[in-house]
Amino acid sequence: MAILASMTQSRLIAKAEKAAQNPIIINSNNGLFNAGKLWAEQKILAIDTEFIRERTYYAILGLVQVSDGHTVWLVDPLKITDFQPLVEMLSNPDILKLLHAPSEDLEVLQKSVGCMPEPMFDMQLAASYLGQALQISYQKLLEWQLGVLIDKGESRSNWLQRPLSDSQLHYAALDVSYLPMIYTQVTTELEKLGRQTWVTEDSQLQLNKARMSIDFDQLYLRFRNAWRLKPKPQKTLQALCHWRELEAERRNLPRTFILRDNDLMAIAQNMPTTAENLKECTQAHPRALQRHSRSILELVSKIRSEKSDALSTPQPPLPLDSEEKNSLDQVRADLSELASQLGIESTILASKKELEYLILTRPVNQLPARFQGWRNELINGLITNINQLPRTT
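The chain above was modelled as a monomer; its predicted structure follows.
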């Protein structure tokens, strides 16, 4: 039986490699329409994207890869004007879409074609729930499941150049050709452990998160030292983060091309009143200051003149006190022991940042979505213990 299984796997690997060597290039609306009819007959399809975002706010889609394990289709979005067949496939509830570490793929697909792959199965998550590293690469995934070694040399190549090189096309095709086969093997292992729903739930959570719009007024909460600022500097940092995001989006530039985080914090701390003050307190490029100084100084002046210091959004989280840090250490130790018993990384159950949030906001009446599914069954006792921690006044 083992020999037969090995022979079957070898044949499937050979088919996947052959498909990657001979991908179907789709560079017309008619070609995509014909591919869409074939996709509609499938129950499972692997999806991936290639894109560029080095000098833009929004990623620019360069290629969409699709595979059923026997055929690979490479969709050229630069040559196609009607994406409806792709949209229909991505949104078809009867086709399970397989992706590996899809967060960026979701973003670029939503922006470029107006749709995300649903239902979705994240292969990276599936591997981590079987004891692999939480951030396992696609390359390591293939080596672990199939013993196949592939070259990732084209990962940072220019996906907007035309024509794409043969090595680029082969690289892109390999990113999807093996996934259907791996899915079959991985789901068998997940079902044995009763963890199939883990991937289903968490893949849906990723889709839900990708659909959420960014609250520009809460971007400043990402600054770990925001709590150290006095009220008006805090409001300044909040306003600066909001302004920078709008400016980056409007000009379609990376936010660091507008101003870097350390410059935003320096402006908030000093609240400059003149262009010279602004120049002295930052390390920003002179051209950036020349372009933005007026907007920044007007923003700071407005906040200086406000009578109220109160923020209308959540306050920056305070650091844990010594007793809370001790409690965090104990909770993490308990979590690590549980994860060890399950044969997975502890951060799969809850990250340090998530545990800090639960401790700081205790008692939590409404758990974050990530803790309302399968995790709740496993760590409900830990969350109960956190909610019962005494508060020092």
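Residues 231-251 form the longest helix (21 residues).
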